[in-house]
Amino acid sequence: MTDVLLTVGTRKGLFTGRRRDGAWEFGGPHFNAQAIYSIAIDTRRETPRLLVGGDSAHWGPSVFHSDDLGATWIEPQRPAVKFPPFTEASLERVWQLHPAGPEAPGVVYAGTEPAALFRSEDGGESFELVRPLWEHPTRSKWVPGGGGEGLHTILTDPRDPRAVTVAVSTAGVFRTKDGGESWAPANKGVSAVFLPDPDPEFGQCVHKVTRDAADPDRLYLQNHWGVFRSDDSGDSWTDIGAGLPSDFGFAAAAHPHRGETAYIFPINADADRVPAERRCRVFRTSDAGRTWEPLSAGLPQGAHYGTVLRDALCTDDADPAGVYFGNRNGEVFASADDGDTWQQLFSHLPDVLCVRAAVIG
């Protein structure tokens, strides 16, 4: 069976799992007592590089990296992510770490709070602010969501390293086609039922966006109320929430190989943030959102209250795909067969904030 590395960021440290020959081995915590909001596994290198956005209550936020699968960690002597003086801003959190594809070796992006995009060309050891997005003319009207004003989603286009899509809570989706020199909102069709104008150009509370494996122009979006699909890289969006027990939620992940296949974890409501109908279920579409099926074999069957946050659902790149999620109960579940069946890997962890996995062998 494929060798997989699983990383779990929690409110109090980083935990790891390694599946070899079908058996799991577990380790951690690393960064004891730090909140781990972002993780990336950069598999473009001969030995994968792990990148972690930690947040110490005493020392503040930082980005660490490891080139030996977490045996040792390096923190740069100077902050990897730092706002320039002219911004009059200070880093509160690194919400996202995203290695670009093989078309842009060495490039890693970071999304932060306050909402900003940073770019690294040295594998994540140092970052520079992408200034045109920071200075976007709409920025003065961006409003923080319930979790803050965070740039939490970064998608690079495998066909063009200059094309990048980001999502901000609560500003919506923005895109660049010229390497970050200019940015445009990409929210047409994404409703904002909580605003006086339910169809604004920007201001949507986007929770997560993921890209289809077979069609790079197809994106799936989990909004604060609403699940949407775009077939034109974000030029327009279509509601695909019919058939779900709730279209509120935080997480979304695409299958790594199968087109039209994506996963979400519905939440009851914004005012009742527990699993939809109090049942622990991942929902999968295999036809780009036309229909949805609940996946629960091996998951808890009784009343359940474990909320899954926006970065706590992921897939690896195995075939069949591994699917993983963690919740605020401190539980982590894994499927090795595209989500058909599940097993529990962790219990009683601190609050799970993010989960990432990748094939490493």
Automatic annotation (TrEMBL):
Tell me which positions the record assigns to the signal sequence: none
Q: Which GO terms describe its biological process?
A: xyloglucan metabolic process
Q: What is this protein called?
A: Photosystem II stability/assembly factor-like uncharacterized protein
Native species: Streptomyces fulvorobeus
